[in-house]
Structure formats: C-alpha cells, structure tokens
Amino acid sequence: MSHNKLSRRDFLRMSALAAAGVTLAACGAGSPAATEQPEETTAEEVAPPAEEVTISFMGWGGTEEDEGVRAAIKVFQEEQSSIKVDWIHTPDNYTEKVLSMVAAGTPPDTSFVGGEVFQPWACDGLLLDITSRLEGDPVVGAEDYFIEPQERQRCTIKGHWYGIGSCWVAPHIYYNADIFDEEGIEPPSNDPQEVWDWDTFLDVATQLTVDTNGKHPNESGFDPDSMDRWGVHWPLGNGTTLYAAIYSNEGQWLDPDTGLLAIDQPAAYEAVQALADLNLKHHVAPASATFDQLGMDNTQMLENGKLAMAIDGSWALAWIHKIEATLGTAALPKMKVPATDMQAHIHCGFKDSKYPEAAWQWVRFLGTEYYQLLFLRMGLWLPSQRSLMTEDGLQKWMTLRTSPTEGVHPEGYEKIVTDFVPNYGHVTYQPPGYSEATSVINPALDAIWVGDMTAKEAFEQAVPEANAILEKETCNIVG
C-alpha cells in the first residue's frame, strides 16, 4: 500500500518553506490498549544510554498494529529503563506528515518507512546509517538470522544498511474449499513444487465461473453481464500481485542493475496482458468496478460463494480466516516458474535524531523475535527471521484453523512460509523518482485494464517517458 503522495521535488519545496519558518503541530498518541503479550523475551540486552532519553516512533496501521506497538514499547522500556518511546500513531497522510516534520527540522527519531520511499529517503540523506551497529551485533547481525538475500536487498543501498524489515508479506491464493468440493475439483497446493501452470489455472477458473443461467465462459450462451460466480479475482491495482505475475514469467518490473522500468520487455508485458485477459478475454474474473456495484469485497465474496479464489496478500489472512466457509490457501500459479513478490515496511532511524544510539536500540528491538510474534499469531505478517521458520519456531505462532473462531492458519500453510516465500519470493523497492514516474505508468495500466490498449502498446509508449524521469534522479550515497 502506498503512503506517498509527494515527490522529491515536493519535499525540497517543503524544506525551503521550513527555512522560512514553517512549523508543524505535534501528533499525540491515544491511550494504551490491552494486548496479550507473548511469553518470549527479546534477544541479548544491549547497553542503555547513560541518562534517560525519550525518542519518538512514528507509524501507520490499524487497531492491531497500534496495540502491538504499545505492547512492544512496554516490554522494551522494562528492559531499557533509560529509553522511553513516544508512539506517534499516524494512520492517515503518513508520508506527508513525516516529510513535514523533516522539513520543519523536527523529524521523528524512528519510524515505519514504506518500500516506495525507503530508497528515496536514504538517498536524500534522511535515514540513519546502521551498518556498523548491525554488522557488529551478535544477534540481528548473525549471518543466518534473516531470510537472505532478500533482507539485504531491501534494507541496503550500495552496501549500507538503513533499517531492518518489519516482516515479510507476499501474495498467494485464498480459496473457498466448499466450492471445490461441490464441483469435484482438486484444489491448488501450498507446495511450490506442485503449483498449477497457467493453463491449468485458467481451466479451473473457467470451470468455477458460472453465469445466472448456469453457463460457463467456454459454453455457448454464456452471459458475462449476468454472473452468479467468478472463478478468481486477481487485483490489478495492487503492485505486489502485478510484480508476482511478471516474476513468474521471468520478467522484471524494474531492472535491478539500472533501476529503470523494464515492463516494455515481452516477459513483463505478456504477464500483465495475461492478468488483464482474465476479465477481458476469459471472463473468469470480475472487473474492479464490480466490487463497488455489489457492495462487497473479496472476503465477503469468498464467504458467500460469489468468488471461488482470491489472489491477495498474506496480510489478508488476518481477516479472511474468519469467514464461515471452509478456507484453503495455495501458492500462486506459475507462468514459467513459481514466484511471488515480497514486501513490508522497514523500521528506520532518522539521521538527524538527537539520540542515534537509542534509536538504533529501538530499531534493533523491533527486529527481534518478540515484536514479530505479535503479528505472526494474528495472521497479519510472515516471518523474516529464520528461527521462526523452523519446526520449533512455527509452533510459537502458527495455529491450525479449525473454524472461524478457532485458529488462524489453514492446513498446509507452513509450506507458504517455509518453501514458497523464501525460495521463490522477489523484492521490489522503488528508486528515487518512482513516485513521479507512476504518473505516467498508472494511466497506461488503466488503459490496459479496460482494454483500450494492449500491455505491449501501453508500455512501449509510456516506459520511455517514465524512465526519462527516473534517469534524472541521483542517489547521494557513496558505496
């Protein structure tokens, strides 16, 4: 989810205004909420500051994350009595508010940093370089502590560490197992070695799609304007699900060497076209406007049988697991190879913090087992720490879903955690200038989704203009 509406040029303009005397009112946090705390303790203690300091921590999120942060602060402050953490919960206009604070000369000490702004902020010198602290730490700096190489890919620029990832999240399949049982169709698997190929996926989606007259899309008389059930929903406005399809077709959204868009290449635009054709050509997926017309989201449609399969992020398990229908999950179908996209916000300190050591200790704490367990247990996150993917580690947080009120994780979900995501997950983080480049790419995507242009036509037209924007940007980090 994007939290950024400001370009780097916007930020520079805000900085100029700040020099003329712009100020920002401080954001206050609400009252603490009771949250069950895991019994595990954090990793080894680190030396506290010589005197008591208070650092700020800014982040977004709903009730669950708000309560989780408050619980984590309580534990941290019991261990580090000389460091107090002031939680600034900012669920709306987050990036704009952070940049306003930076421009006013009062940045938060630590914060959530979204993947869409991490590289631009680091390149602009806003974030604290934690390289020596992390690499010298016996716990979070250990060679096998995080899933690699993905953790290093998302948190480093030119060899420098500027944060620690909060967790991982990744798209996969959710399905109504009752529908598969009624239709006598074998459901997809969580095992990435047994994923459907794209033709099988389309065939099953066609069998599960039916209009109000009982016709399937491959039958004469099928009416796509009068639907009883769709086979699948693959959200087209969600970057992670687009990236996943492109990676599966052995393409790239962004060239990892140049940082430029690579979606005007066949492997990328063919994958995007395949997603558009789920609705435009095969009629197995609802158009985006359908959800507004029906007044339902994909969770409700899964539950009431209007939808057989939903492609969504792993975070959605936190609420999808509560549906009344029998729930199943699976790895994404493959176009050429199994693949998914890995994302999550990063916990960072700010370079201009008055208390960089205290900021590091808080960021470090958030990268240890206690904090991650809070959100793993509710189905919101996937682990980024190897120890939580072992047999013993899984037992600390996975609970088998036996009913809408008992357990969270569907049978076999451990394969998503231990096999699919770490072995077939790709990291996509946006370079400086990307926010401005999307003003060119997003209209091209819209034209594809409604069928006004093919993906090849749209991208061959838009990508050169978007890349011209990216080529103008520079990164001030020296490797």
Structure, described:
This protein has 479 residues and is of the alpha/beta class. The protein folds into two domains: 8-169 and 344-397, Periplasmic binding protein-like II (D-Maltodextrin-Binding Protein, domain 2, 3-Layer(aba) Sandwich), CATH 3.40.190.10; 171-342 and 430-471, Periplasmic binding protein-like II (D-Maltodextrin-Binding Protein, domain 2). Helix content is 39%, strand content 13%. It has 19 helices and 14 strands. It has helices at 8-19, 63-79, 94-103, 118-123, 131-135, 150-155, 177-183, 198-208, 239-248, 266-280, 288-294, 298-304, 317-320, 356-366, 369-376, 391-395, 414-424, 434-449, 455-471; strands at 53-59, 83-89, 110-113, 156-157, 160-161, 164-165, 171-176, 210-211, 227-233, 307-313, 327-330, 340-342, 346-349, 425-427. The chain has a five-stranded mixed β-sheet. The chain has a five-stranded mixed β-sheet with strand order 8-9-10-7-11. Strands 4-5 form a two-stranded antiparallel ribbon. Helix 2 (63-79) links the parallel strand 1 (53-59) and strand 2 (83-89). Helix 2 packs antiparallel against helix 15, helix 9 crosses helix 10 and helix 18 runs antiparallel to helix 19 (455-471). The protein is globular. The chain starts with 7 loop residues before the first helix and ends in an 8-residue tail after the last helix.
Structure at a glance:
The protein has 19 helices and 14 strands. It is an alpha/beta fold.
Percent range for helical residues?
25-40%
Number of alpha- plus pi-helical segments: 19
> What is the CATH C level class of the largest domain, in words?
Alpha Beta
Strand residue content: 5-15%
Q: Report the C-alpha radius of gyration, rounded.
A: 23 Å
Tally of domains: 2
Mean pLDDT over the residues: 90
Q: Write the CATH homologous superfamily of the largest domain.
A: Periplasmic binding protein-like II
Q: What structural class do you assign from the helix and strand content?
A: alpha/beta
| CATH topology heading of the largest domain | D-Maltodextrin-Binding Protein, domain 2
Bulk shape: globular
Low-confidence stretches: 1-5, 8-46
What's the architecture of the largest domain in CATH terms? Answer: 3-Layer(aba) Sandwich
Q: Largest sheet, order of strands side by side?
A: 2-1-3-13-6
Number of DSSP strand runs: 14
Distance between the termini: 30 Å
